[in-house]
Amino acid sequence: METMIIIQIFLFGISKAFMLSADSCKSPPVANGYQNTRYNGLWYEVSKAQTAGGAFFEKDCVCTTIDVQPVPSATNGDSKAINSCRKITPTGNFMNATGTLSNEGPLGHWKEGFFPGAPKADYTIIYLTDNVAVEYDCSSFLGLYTNYCIHILSRTPTISSDEEDAAIKYAESLGLNTQNLPFHKTLQEGCW
Ligand SMILES: *[C@@H]1O[C@H](CO)[C@@H](O)[C@H](O)[C@H]1NC(C)=O
Q1: Is the pTM of this model over 0.85?
Q2: How many structural domains compose the chain?
Q3: Does a structural domain hold residue 110?
Q4: Is 104 left (phi over 0), alpha (psi -120 to 50) or beta?
């Protein structure tokens, strides 16, 4: 009996490994005409699709913003992504976390890390207009566990549904949403 269970767990592990290998991180092209100067500055997250194991601090987030700031005097594109949000309600405590964006190449693709020595995620700006950006980040542990997030970002706390739909449609067209996750709106009302 025990042997059976162990064999079953083993087979489950193997099938899961094969199943998820089809679901590893994607390497999408960066946005047309991408330039760091067009991405730098403050963005409001208006919606996102995220795997359950995605960035721990983003759970319970409302009023989410990302402020992208080049590291002063860096000439290689090194930047900081200052993630800020409130816990559960617009008056909840701040939950902030600063990611470092390094190893930029091509322009618009970095490695993002939150703790020195911890595994880094691939961080790619796949879509960029004057008002809207789509950022895809993904990390994979030994090719077995893949976590990704597709963030729809806006220069203003709200966005027209046409602009949002176009951004989501483009992300879906690249096949990034390998687990067919729904896009959830990020609460921005009552925050500002
Ligand atoms: C979190 O970030 C926001 C926006 O950058 C800032 O206004 C706030 O003071 C920060 N709060 C904490 C506790 O770091």
Answers
A1: yes
A2: 1
A3: yes
A4: beta
What is the Å distance from ligand 1's center to 96 Cα? Answer: 6
Ligand 1, atom 9, lies closest to the CA of 94
- In the chain, which ranges are E strands? 41-50, 61-70, 79-87, 97-102, 109-113, 121-128, 132-141, 145-154, 184-185
Distance CA 154, CA 47 (A): 9
Cα of 2 from ligand 1 centre, angstroms: 53
Ligand 1 interacting residues, C-beta cut-off 6 A: 67, 82, 84, 94, 96
In a domain, 30, yes or no: yes
CATH number for the domain spanning 134: value is 2.40.128.20
Residue 20 belongs to domain spanning: 2-185
Best probe residue, ligand 1, of 43, 83, 84, 91 (max atoms within 8 Å of C-beta)? 84
Structure confidence by residue, pLDDT tens digits, 14-64: 445 545 445 789 999 999 999 999 999 999 999 999 998 765 667 789 999
